[in-house]
Write the structure tokens for this entry.
Amino acid sequence: MTRSIVKYQFMANERARNTTLQKRKTSLFKKMIELKCLCDVDACLVMYEKDEVPPEVWPSPSEAQRVMQKFQNSKILGASAMLDQKAFLQKSIMKTKKNLDKEKEKNVKRSMLICMFDENDQEDLEGLKGSIASEIRLVDLMIKNAYEKGKEKMV
């Protein structure tokens, strides 16, 4: 009994999803027509469905091919500028890490200022001393790396 109920629910769910897909597809095609006409831009739409072997192409396969070729040949957004999901996420993570490092640096500087101009208790001064020492080590490491790179280039 429960098996037939589950099967019926799946079928109903599948039917609802297909209905939603058809409505959204119609809406998407309408939006593409509006975009092309109202904004006078080149646009195309290629849609692959799960079971449909040839994709649906708007306005026509030849026009879609022309628009795609124009996109790939453009100097601003050529194939080299496109990112896949992994590359996009890696780039986003690196950007976020840089922002985090900048904010950490700002916090260290703020805490140094607070420490210097506020109540100079021993604990704060020790923290400031540690922060300054770590900054000095970082600068020394950067100098060492730059020196080694300069040596390698000379050889």
